[in-house]
Write a structure and sequence with these properties.
- It contains 8 helices and 12 strands.
- It folds into 4 domains: about 1-30, no CATH class; about 30-115, Helix Hairpins (Orthogonal Bundle), CATH 1.10.287; about 125-225, Cupredoxins -  blue copper proteins (Immunoglobulin-like), CATH 2.60.40; about 250-335, Immunoglobulin-like.
- Helix 2 (about 35-70) runs antiparallel to helix 3 (about 85-115) and helix 6 (about 300-305) packs across helix 8 (about 325-335).
- It has a 5-stranded mixed β-sheet. Strands 4-10-9-6-7 form a 5-stranded mixed β-sheet. Strands 11-12 form a two-stranded antiparallel ribbon.
- The protein is elongated.
- Strand 1 (about 125-130) and strand 2 form a beta hairpin.
- By secondary structure, the chain is an alpha+beta fold.
- The longest helix has about 35 residues, at about 35-70.
- Bound molecules: dinuclear copper ion.
- Dinuclear copper ion binds near residues 175, 212 and 213.
- Dinuclear copper ion (CUA) binds near residues 131 and 134.
Length: about 350
């Protein structure tokens, strides 16, 4: 009881910190920072403008009618003029909405086609994003990098445009990749590959989330896109390509980790751990969150996670391994060294 209430308190504290850090906040759809998002934004402005005009006209007529024809004196018993079967009025209220819908449809179709048919530059960064319940596997086949939950892409500038081309797939159920400031939603469907692209023109971290209900922890399937100047991106990629850190002082911690069933699901590059069922851990501590955005990635949180992942993200596929405290110390010490 004591330890579970302590855990609850700890989780509450991290939740507060998480909110402060904006772990769960969603990007502003009115502040697009890439071409596909800009296209969607322009269509939405047109929609909002047309809807606002309709609102003003309909609301105006309604208000005018209420005020102008309100009951001013006692009912004189006369029936107001009854208008029905007027061809002119019926044609007007059929044709106008049809024209409005046509304009909206064509504007939307043009935006969709422009984004989907954009010719990709030969040097586009190829990334494969695979949805899992409930995390994102991210692979850079040309760079030989495998990571999770954080998509790093280079900044696109007028002088040096950079496009990241995403190939989307799913390992289980349907998910949807949505980072509002960068692009519209694209589904990840098992057995059916979808594609999308982004050319972010603002450096920084852009938050997104899964936008297709995919089970209990759908709301905790968050994605972070880290946009950095090309030099920083290259530095990140070079570090990710290296084999996982291996410190002599952590030799026994490493062998403890490798002796446990962790390695059936997780991979750590340069070691016998080659599991692919869970997130790749080679550079775990280079990522900002645990559990796909569930909590900040600190050593204390990592310990709580390894101790009982179900208490932090109920229903996720990592079981409570029932480690004793010595094993827990060693596994956490080893994992925390994977920068
Ligand atoms: Cu994955 Cu919702």
């Amino acid at each position: 009881m004591g330890s579970s209430s302590r855990l609850a308190g700890q989780l509450f504290a991290t939740a507060v910190v998480a909110c402060g850090q904006g772990l769960h906040s969603v990007g502003n759809i009115f502040d697009p920072q890439a071409t596909p998002a800009e296209s969607a934004y322009n269509v939405s402005l047109l929609m909002l403008a047309i809807c606002a005009a309709i609102f003003v006209v309909v609301g105006g007529f309604l208000t005018f009618t209420i005020v102008r024809y309100r009951g001013r004196q006692k009912d004189d018993g006369r029936e107001p003029a009854q208008v029905y079967g007027s061809n002119r009025i019926e044609i007007a209220w059929t044709v106008i909405p049809v024209l409005i819908v046509l304009v909206l449809t064509m504007a939307t179709a043009r935006a969709v086609v422009e984004v989907q048919n954009r010719r990709m530059p030969a040097d586009a960064l190829q990334v494969t994003v695979i949805g899992h319940q409930w995390w994102w596997e991210i692979r850079y086949p040309s760079l030989g990098i495998v990571t999770a939950n954080e998509l790093h892409v280079p900044l696109s500038t007028a002088a040096k445009p950079a496009v990241a081309f995403l190939t989307l797939d799913s390992a289980d159920v349907a998910h949807s990749f949505w980072v509002p400031q960068l692009a519209g939603k694209t589904d990840l469907i098992p057995g059916h590959v979808n594609t999308m692209w982004i050319d972010p023109r603002q450096a920084g971290t852009f938050l997104g989330n899964c936008a297709e209900y995919c089970g209990t922890q759908h709301a905790n399937m968050l994605i972070r896109v880290i946009v950095e100047p090309p030099a920083d991106f290259d530095k990140w990629a070079a570090a990710q390509k290296l084999d996982a850190a291996s410190e002599p002082r952590l030799e026994s911690a490493q062998s403890a980790f490798l002796s446990l069933s962790c390695i059936n699901c997780h991979a750590v590059s340069g070691t016998p751990a080659k599991g692919t069922f869970g997130p790749d851990l080679s550079h775990l501590m280079s990522r900002a969150t645990l559990g796909s955005g569930r909590i900040p990635n600190t050593v204390e949180n990592l310990r709580a996670w390894v101790k009982d992942p179900q208490a932090i993200k109920h229903g996720n596929l990592m079981p409570n391994m029932q480690l004793n405290s010595r094993e827990l110390d060693e596994v956490v010490a080893y994992l925390a060294s994977l920068k």
